[in-house]
What we know:
Elements: E1 5-6, E2 13-14, E3 18-21, E4 24-27, H1 28-44, H2 51-76, H3 85-98, H4 105-133, H5 149-159, H6 164-178
Antiparallel strand pairs: 1-2, 3-4
Helix pairs in contact: 2-3, 2-4, 3-4, 3-6, 4-5, 4-6
Amino acid sequence: MAEEQQCLECGKLFTENLVETEHGAFCRPCYDALLTTVKEQVAVQNSEINYPLSLAGGLLGAALGVLIWWAITFYSGYSVGIVAIVIGITVAKGITVFNGNRRSQSIQLMAVAITVIAFFYADYLVVRSYILSGNEAEYINILTYLPDPKIFLNVLKETFEAFNLVFLGIAIWQAWTMTRPYKFE
Length: 185
């Protein structure tokens, strides 16, 4: 006699017509209903995306990620580049939360673009803070929070290290994978 199992969805005991998954066993009606729901969710994930709201979420996530990286790096006194991955994570979370967990390749590209800009801005803020903390008061009017693009690029050019590309790559990877559309297989 077959062993009775309980459906994870409805809780009924059954011995036949069960579907085993990596998460447990389901009765056929519950499994079919869950399968239909998953297929519907995957099908609509890239429809009706609110891009302005996605952008707002990404920018808020970027601001949070930049603030976290800057604070840890500046207050610890160490260049903690690996913390930069938090930028990719917060950007991706901001976008997906603000757009109702919608996903598409265009959302991925938005997440990557925001992450790259936020990464370089955070790097600029760290350098700015180090310069200004050294009693270099004459730079306070030059190194503003929203710098002239020429100054921004010059600061980055002079202080950017090749190893930062590793951390940038990891941050981009986080933003890309966390906003990747789900696939039903």
